[in-house]
Amino acid sequence: MYDSSLLIIYLISFLASVLGAVCGIGGGVIIKPVLDSFQLMDAGTVSFLSGCTVLSMTCYSVVSVHVKGDSRIDYKVSTYLGIGAAAGGCLGKCLFEALNRWFSDAGRIGAVQSAALFVLTIGTLCYTLQKHRIHTRHITGKSICACIGIILGIMSSFLGIGGGPINLVLLYFCFSMETKVAVQNSLYIILISQVSSLIFTAVKGNLPAVRPALLLGMVIFGILGGAAGRRVNSKIDSHTVNKLFIAVMLIIILICVYNFVQYM
């Protein structure tokens, strides 16, 4: 991989982390499809690097709001969502590994992930545009929260996005959270699931061989992006966050279509 490619990847990690911190989507939902479009690495390596970047960004963001006394995380809800997401993440990785064994062509795996992310993002976008018309719930049961988390974990882990837009949709619908509150809770859930995902990958001995400079650089730019994103989020209102979230969804949809065509 050339140095120019490293600089591009660092820039992608930074910008994705900025948007991830502002919108509460983690950044992996941007990093994964964008890096897939360059086809510099296989899907498993991209998922690992994306997850590490998201982990660094969410860790910074969650710690930052606590240090500044600005935390709006509902631990009674989001901790159980995170635990469920951690368990679901392990199932999602097993599903990905099964798919990896099923298809001899790595491009086919990328095509399946792109198609699944496309459908998921379309659904998320449709809900976001119509959410003012949809009656929301206020779920408090621990077991139900954990089950919802499992669904989140399976989808995010299989797709290699570390969390993503579906977190916000479920936080809006199932728990009636306001946008900025949902952003903080989403990042907390993603943090828990990413820690468990990394441990699961390491224990199974599936850590991919990557250049230290590439991994370290993405982690550093993930933290820098998280810091910049937190600052931006503090200066804009929820309506602006929603508009930015919709714009990001449209971009992801276009990238997914491009990746699907490329892989097929």
Question: Could you walk me through the main structural features you see in this protein, from its secondary elements to its overall organization?
Answer:
- The chain has 264 residues and is an all-alpha fold.
- The chain has one domain (3-263).
- Helix content is 81%, strand content 0%.
- The chain has ten helices and no strands.
- Helix 3 (43-67) crosses helix 8 (179-203) and helix 3 (43-67) packs across helix 9 (212-235).
- It starts with a helix and ends with a helix.
- It comes from Lactonifactor longoviformis DSM 17459.
- Belongs to the 4-toluene sulfonate uptake permease (TSUP) (TC 2.A.102) family.
- The chain crosses the membrane at residues 6-31, 43-65, 77-96, 108-130, 150-175, 187-203, 209-229, 241-261.
- It is found in: Cell membrane; Membrane.
- InterPro entries: TM_pro_TauE-like, TSUP/Inactive_protease-like.
Brief digest:
With 264 residues, the protein is mainly α. The chain has helices spanning 3-23, 28-38, 43-67, 75-102, 106-130, 142-159, 165-175, 179-203, 212-235, 238-263.
Q: Percent helix among the residues?
A: over 70%
**Helix-strand string:** HHHHHHHHHH
Shape: globular
Computed structural class: mainly alpha
Major sheet summary line: none
The rounded distance between the terminal residues' Cα atoms is 24 Å
Number of strands: 0
Number of helices: 10
- Overall tally of domains: 1
InterPro entries: TM_pro_TauE-like, TSUP/Inactive_protease-like
Protein name: Probable membrane transporter protein
Membrane topology: Multi-pass membrane protein
Family: Belongs to the 4-toluene sulfonate uptake permease (TSUP) (TC 2.A.102) family.
